[in-house]
Design a protein that fits this description.
The complex is a heterodimer. Chain A is an alpha+beta fold. Helix content of chain A is 48%, strand content 16%. In chain A, strands 2-1-10-9-7 form a five-stranded antiparallel sheet, with no helix packed on it. Chain B contains six helices and 24 strands. The chains are: A alpha+beta, B alpha+beta.
């Protein structure tokens, strides 16, 4: 009966396996063994397996560090059956027979199938250029002194660096968990999210400038940025891990929830706090972005009338 | 007033109280010596005693004005006791270290005066002058600067200051903390004014004695002490703003040009305007010119709360070397930085409630308007109003108009806003 010996890595994942069609298999660090392992805590001739009925009998060959049984499906302690896990030195091994059941193959996530598209130069380069351009534009628009590249470059470079570091983090995680880095994929995703965020906040602030409605207020802006964060995290995780879609979405939602809670707790301090300064909408935008027609001053004055009642009510709640 | 912006070279009054000046004129010294000798027992130190700690929390000066022990002082000296009678009591201390209890009977917050009464007061009183002295006459301020003991300060009477809505005598002499509420007397030993404030360097202010005459006759006519001080003060504030705004609305509101716009000029003699621009700055990428107007009639309510001010301001901006996006970025930053010019605390006012909207003026110009107000907690139907208007239809120039009215009624606030929007126009 052929025995398959798997060397397990982090999280019980198979790192390496040996398939040997023999009744007796010797394991150790020495080159005379059937399976040669490099763990320094393993003796030169550590143990021997002998096929016996449905399983194997293990004989410890007077090894220095001995053998530790992690799991053994067999009811007979001396017999190890398919699926048993043992540890010698610092190495975990699993013994399985060819008939050992497997999990079903997973469906490839759409994003992952398409990830090769993100890897293309024709995708990520334009994204990079677009992000670079929007950052440059925003720095340029907020510059009031004479334009100097030396002032703008550190700002843009540090923002790009942050995106780069984010992509490196996710690709390292992917490399570790799935042995797939998808660096360009992760990089493109973050670039895309940053563009989406810029576009979204610009659109919302233009809308809120024109229509002073609660619909486009701070709450909605926060909601939009949290949604973008949720989408980005979920996409990053899809590429970097094997999480099921339910686990992935709930994990992301929990993370975003924590971010929202931390943010609210930070703001809670100032809730209801008295300020001698007025908090008013100070947004102003270039005339091209103004699409609404103004009221007459009488209409405006009529609209602010309720403010007096509000203030009177507030004055009563000493 | 713009926050964090360097204060314009305006005269700021501080509530007073010290001395460190001697006249070189012998005759003046003689009179000062005589007045000091004659009235030393009639100038009292007024002390506000905290009932919990039993110690004095504030001191000022005061003087009896009749034989029955009616004593005049400043409202700001006894304000703690007026606002929280259960926490503070008022005492006097004579030159000979005699003390006695005082009862608050009437106040005039607008002119910063108060009347207190001593129960069994025996002593000298000072007569109030019935005529205003001529400008240039030597007068003598008495009081207890910094708790150092009674002091006399010779100075000159410079008449009623026309630059303030509420009449104040400009007195050339040093008033210092603790002298508040003390009398300033002429050679005959008659009170011509009540020490109230200083602007430093010999520029000091007195409440004209005529205001004290009015307060005393009001009190006599009523024949009893004020029962509800808060209500009484609220009525005084309401009546004062009503009178002030009626007189402002009756005036002809003149415009003056700023950049390409027409803005409101000095509304009345008591509103002073100052201006500036960045045109001398070679590195400036844009052009900015401003005009700020302010009336210095700040009414002292508490150490954290002042009302009665009126201020308005205009800023003209031109993009010059900036493009439209950069210009609007700067403009937005400036627009978001306005704050009221009067101080107020949580105990005094509500937080600001604001609303904003676009308007189209008669000339077709689009503006963004911000209207903010906070209500007075102790004085119903009085508000601080901050209004802000910024033009939004020109790519390369802009006009910001702002005003703050402190302690104004809804009707006057709205009427002022309406007129302000009409007069300040950019055609």
């Amino acid at each position: 009966m052929a025995v398959i010996i798997e060397v397990l890595g982090w999280g019980g994942k198979r790192r390496q396996y040996f398939k040997i069609d023999a009744d007796q298999v010797s394991i150790g660090r020495g080159y005379d063994n059937d399976i040669v392992l490099s763990d320094p805590y393993i003796s030169a001739n550590h143990l021997r397996l002998n096929a016996c009925g449905d399983g194997w009998v293990i004989t410890d060959l007077d090894s220095l560090n001995g053998l530790q049984v992690i799991k053994n499906p067999s009811t007979d302690e001396s017999l190890f059956t398919s699926g048993a896990e043992i540890k010698l030195g610092r190495t975990k091994l699993r013994l399985v027979a060819e008939s050992y059941p497997l999990e079903d193959a997973k469906i490839l996530h759409g994003l992952e199938r398409d990830t090769n598209k993100l890897n293309r130069l024709s995708v990520w380069l334009p994204l990079l250029v677009a992000v670079f351009a929007t950052q440059l534009l925003s720095v340029y628009a907020s510059t009031l002194a004479e334009w100097e590249w030396k002032n703008a470059i550190p700002v843009i470079v540090s923002a790009q660096l942050a995106i780069f570091v984010g992509a490196i983090f996710w690709s390292l995680l992917g490399r570790l968990i799935r042995h797939e880095a998808h660096f360009l994929g992760q990089y493109s995703l973050i670039l895309l999210a940053s563009l989406l965020f810029t576009g979204c906040s610009w659109l919302l602030s233009t809308l809120s400038y024109n229509f002073s409605s609660a619909l486009f207020g701070d709450m909605v802006q926060q909601l939009a940025s949290m949604s973008i964060l949720l989408l980005l995290l979920s996409a990053n995780l899809t590429l970097a891990t094997n999480l099921s879609s339910r686990a992935r979405w709930s994990g992301c939602a929990a993370f975003v929830g924590v971010v929202v809670i931390i943010g609210s707790v930070g703001q809670m301090k100032s809730w209801g706090e008295f300020s001698p300064f007025p908090q008013y909408s100070s947004t102003l935008a270039a005339p091209a972005l103004l699409v609404v027609e103004g009221q007459t001053s009488e209409e405006f004055l009529a609209d602010i009338d309720p403010l007096f009642q509000q203030a009177d009510r507030a004055a009563l709640e000493k | 007033m713009i926050k964090n912006r360097e204060a314009i070279a305006m005269v700021r009054m501080a509530f007073i109280f010290i001395l460190a000046w001697s006249s070189s004129i012998c005759a003046q010294n003689d009179i000062a010596r005589d007045l000091f000798a004659d009235y030393r027992s009639a100038v009292l130190q007024i002390r506000i005693i905290d009932l919990t700690s039993g110690s004095k929390s504030a001191i000022g000066s005061g003087f009896p004005i009749n034989e029955s022990g009616l004593i005049a002082t400043n409202y700001h000296v006894i304000q703690l006791a007026a606002s929280e009678p259960q926490q503070y009591r008022i005492e006097y201390l004579t030159e000979t270290n005699k003390t006695g209890k005082l009862k608050l009977v009437d106040v005039d917050v607008i002119n910063d005066l108060a009347l207190v009464e001593a129960v069994d007061f025996e002593g000298q009183f000072i007569q109030l002058a019935t005529q205003e002295p001529e400008i240039g006459m030597p007068v003598y301020a008495l009081g207890n600067p910094l708790d150092l003991g009674l002091t006399v300060v010779p100075g000159t009477y410079n008449g009623i200051n026309r630059a303030s809505y509420h009449p104040r005598v400009h007195y050339t002499g040093s008033l210092n903390p603790g002298m508040s509420g003390g009398p300033t007397m002429d050679r005959q030993g008659q009170v011509v004014g009540i020490n109230v404030a200083t602007a430093g360097n010999q520029v000091s202010f007195l409440v004209p004695v005529s205001r004290l005459h009015t307060l005393v006759s009001d009190y006599r006519a009523r024949g009893a002490a004020i029962e509800n001080m808060q209500l009484h003060i609220g009525e005084q504030l309401m009546a004062d703003q009503q009178e002030k705004f009626s007189s402002l609305f009756a005036r002809n509101w003149q415009a003056i040009s700023l950049g390409e716009a027409q803005v409101l000029d000095e509304l009345a003699p008591f509103v002073k305007c100052w201006g500036g621009s960045n045109s001398s700055d070679d590195k400036a990428q844009f052009l900015s010119a401003d005009r700020s107007c302010r009336s210095e009639d700040s009414i002292y309510m508490t150490s954290t709360f002042a009302t009665g001010i009126l201020e308005y301001q205009f800023i003209w901006l031109e993009a010059d070397k900036l493009n439209s996006w950069q210009f609007y970025n700067y403009y937005e930053r400036l627009f978001g930085d306005f704050a009221p010019g009067n101080r107020a605390d949580e105990e005094d006012v509500t937080g600001f409630q604001c609303d904003h909207g676009f308007t189209q003026g008669a000339s077709g110009r689009q503006s963004k308007n911000v209207f903010c107000l906070r209500a007075y907690k102790d004085y119903p139907k009085l508000y601080d109003i901050l209004f802000l208007q910024g033009s939004v239809d020109d790519k390369e120039s802009a006009l910001i108009s702002h005003f703050t009215l402190a302690g104004v009624s809804k009707e006057n606030g709205l009427a002022f806003t309406r007129k302000f929007m009409e007069v300040s126009q950019w055609q």
